[in-house]
Amino acid sequence: MKKSIKATLLSILIFPGAGHFLLKQYISGIFLAGTALIALGILMTKLVEIALQVAGKIQSGEIQYDVATIAELVSVKATGGEAQLFNFATMVLFITWLVGIGDSYRVGRAQEKNIGLGS
């Protein structure tokens, strides 16, 4: 399998920047992985916060242990700056992933061409 395809698959299936590490593009890989980790950290922090709030309400007896009620509480939309941060982090993660996929393929193809010219 060509290196460009391996790098692209790593970026698609594992994490942004993983393909760049295979291609020995460490600075790009660290930047992409770091950006994605920060965005993922923001998303996970908010999701854990929501889960803890719901768990607290269940433990205190404020709500019934019912799937429909829990689903309703979890699906309540965030408002204001909190929602903007959540949406921004989601967008950053998505864009970082797409850039990582496209750039790992581009860099892999360029490296393959350079190897072909050197032969």
Helix content range: over 70%
* Tally of alpha and pi helices: 5
What is the 3D form? elongated
The SS-based structural class is mainly alpha
Task: Describe the 3D structure.
The protein has helices spanning 3-13, 18-22, 26-60, 67-74, 80-118. The radius of gyration is 20 Å and the shape is elongated. It contains 5 helices and no strands. The chain has 119 residues and is mainly α. The protein starts with a helix and ends with a helix.
How would you sum up this structure in a few lines?
With 119 residues, this protein is mainly alpha-helical. Helix content is 82%, strand content 0%.
Quickly list its features.
119 residues, mainly alpha, 5 helices, 82% helix
Topology diagram in text:
Elements (H helix, E strand, L loop, with lengths): L2 H11 L4 H5 L3 H35 L6 H8 L5 H39 L1
Helix pairs in contact: 1-5, 3-5
